[in-house]
Amino acid sequence: MSFESAPKSDEPLMSGEDGYLENQAGYKSSQAQLKRSYIWKVIFGIFAAVVIFGLGVVTGNHLPPRRQGLLAPEGNVKVFMEYNSTFTLHPSPESDAAWDSLFPKGKGFVRHDEIAPETSGLVVYHGLHCLNALRGVYYASVDGLQTRDMEDHAQMSHMTDPHHVRHCFDYLRQSLMCSADTNLEPVTKELKGVTGWGFTRTCRDLDSVKAWAEENWSNEI
Fold it and tell me: Could you list the residue range(s) of the whole structural domain that residue 79 is in?
């Protein structure tokens, strides 16, 4: 059996003292790296906390404020609710003019380069249109002009056409559910219900909506 000698290293073997110093230097370097890593983790944690807090503030500013656990109604205008019989009258120049005054130029159809590049309709005016149609068909029924005979459709306007009115019932239902108005109405004890009148309601500024619609109205419809 023969033995081969290991190749000699160009580096001399480390003495005991040199090895100790080298180990100490390595330990200090490792400690410094751990310290730097810990500092960066702390900095990152603080930064993340600041970002999360900032996002919470921004998000909170965009959420509807709460009032005693209930979502506060949207809007910035206070409107006192009172009965206006003009809008309930039989179709006439006076009542029709009152309804027409609610609509902007273009009847609520708008175009806007950013939010409505194609002609679109504002929901509020579609709802008002439907409600006015229900007024028309109500008085047509009262006057005996509305019959169940489908052949009589030729004598009816679009506003009182049964197909149109049926559309309006469900459209208004879904619109009311979509807006989910959370204003609180006072109860009339004698009626054991609400009339909807005699209290101040928080509303969106419809005048501003109407002004915007007139600035961006479309004549394509």
Answer: 69-215
